[in-house]
Design brief:
alpha/beta, eight-stranded mixed sheet, four-stranded antiparallel sheet, 31% helix, globular, binds adenosine-5'-triphosphate, binds magnesium ion, transport, ATP-binding, ABC_transporter-like_CS
């Protein structure tokens, strides 16, 4: 059995509205091995969720369209499978925790019914066995008194509990790949830590690989082996967590790191923000998409798109000035500061 679980090659996704085309994902490539976790980071609108939902072919079509690339899962290109084959893969081999748990849980069915539904859809089990398994899953994700909770409705659960239910549903079929789109963003830090612990525990138990989409680099450092940094639908940096953490290279990644609140940033200390905003993806982008916001940009950055280069082993960067031959000197955080307001 090959160790490589997923290989995404040059994935392109567009949305069409009239004569306008939004290039939401523009040539994303990465690989994921079994039991390995990859973090996808980037500002809002950079194409993280569109990439993730495309992997399951759940992009609304139209207006969306996977216009190019390959998604090789255990060597099979998911883009060539029939709808029926794809349904078998969803929830069986690959499952997803969506960005908004409230909209993904159905308010008119009890939580138990929704977990059992998912179990019965993919496993040949009796109603009684499905119920037993649902109770087990709720127990596993740390929901107290699961027998009683089974009959309750999503609105009777707290945000953290609902997120656990989503995880229980996603893991009820022991998927080989779990895609988690901001699974902890809406939660307070204590619950967030519990959910991450839970995911690590479940990963050990089920050997699941995880694609973790998050705004929080702390989460990436904690559970991921690789990082994919996205900007305006493009991957601008990709590498092992050690590389990206210790020697980040793209000026955009520097900006992301500098704008994170970390334990070393004391109250009232200043944090850097990235000036400006991402480009309009409906317009043709000439050159490097980050150039207009990059304090290191020179003429070439505005006229020629940089290619992704493996500058060091397992570390890829798309920047004209971060190559095998040349390196930028990372500036001190100086401009565009804002005060940290800690609650
Ligand atoms: N259904 C849709 N129709 C048209 N455009 C869409 C649709 N879904 C996403 N997009 C566009 O695709 C781009 C990428 O969106 P995506 O949701 O992947 O961002 P994201 O990185 O997940 O952001 P966030 O961090 O806010 O969740 C955005 O410009 C968005 O407007
Ligand atoms: Mg998103």
């Amino acid at each position: 059995m090959s160790n490589e679980l997923l290989k995404v090659e040059n994935l392109e996704v567009q949305f069409k509205s009239g004569s306008t085309v939004t290039k939401a994902v523009n040539g994303v490539s990465f690989t994921l091995n079994r039991k390995e976790n990859i973090g996808i980071v980037g500002e809002s609108g950079s194409g993280k969720s569109v990439t993730a939902t495309s992997l399951l072919r759940l992009i609304p079509t139209p207006p969306g369209n996977i216009s190019g690339g390959k998604i090789l899962f255990e060597g099979k290109d998911l883009l060539t499978l029939s709808d029926k084959e794809m349904r078998d893969i969803r929830g069986n081999d690959i499952s997803m925790i969506f960005q908004d748990p409230l909209t993904s849980l159905n308010p008119v069915f009890s939580v138990g019914d929704q977990i059992m539904e998912s179990i019965k859809l993919h496993q040949k089990v009796s109603k009684k066995e499905a119920k037993q398994k649902a109770i087990q899953m709720l127990q596993l994700v740390g929901i107290p008194a699961p027998e009683k909770r089974l009959n309750m409705y999503p609105h009777e659960f707290s945000g953290g509990m609902r997120q656990r239910v989503m995880i229980a549903i996603a893991l009820s079929c022991n998927p080989k790949l779990l895609i988690a789109d901001e699974p902890t963003t809406a939660l307070d830090v204590t619950v967030q830590a519990q959910i991450l612990e839970l995911m690590k525990k479940l990963q050990d138990e089920f050997n699941t690989s995880i694609i973790m989409i998050t705004h929080d680099l702390g989460v990436v450092w904690e559970i991921c082996h690789k990082v994919l940094v996205m900007y305006a639908g493009n991957v601008i940096e990709y590498g092992t967590v050690e590389e990206i953490h210790d020697q980040p290279m793209h000026p955009y990644t520097w900006g992301l790191l500098d704008s994170q609140i970390t334990e070393s940033v004391e109250d009232h200390e200043m944090l850097t923000t990235i000036p400006g905003s991402p480009p309009d993806l409906r317009q043709e982008i000439k050159g490097c998409p980050f150039a207009p916001r990059c304090s290191y940009a020179r003429d070439i950055c505005f006229s020629k798109a940089p290619e992704m280069v493996e500058v060091k082993e397992k570390h890829f960067v798309a920047c004209h000035f971060q190559t095998k031959e040349t390196r930028l000197n990372r500036k001190e955080r100086s401009t565009h500061v804002r005060a940290v307001v800690k609650s």
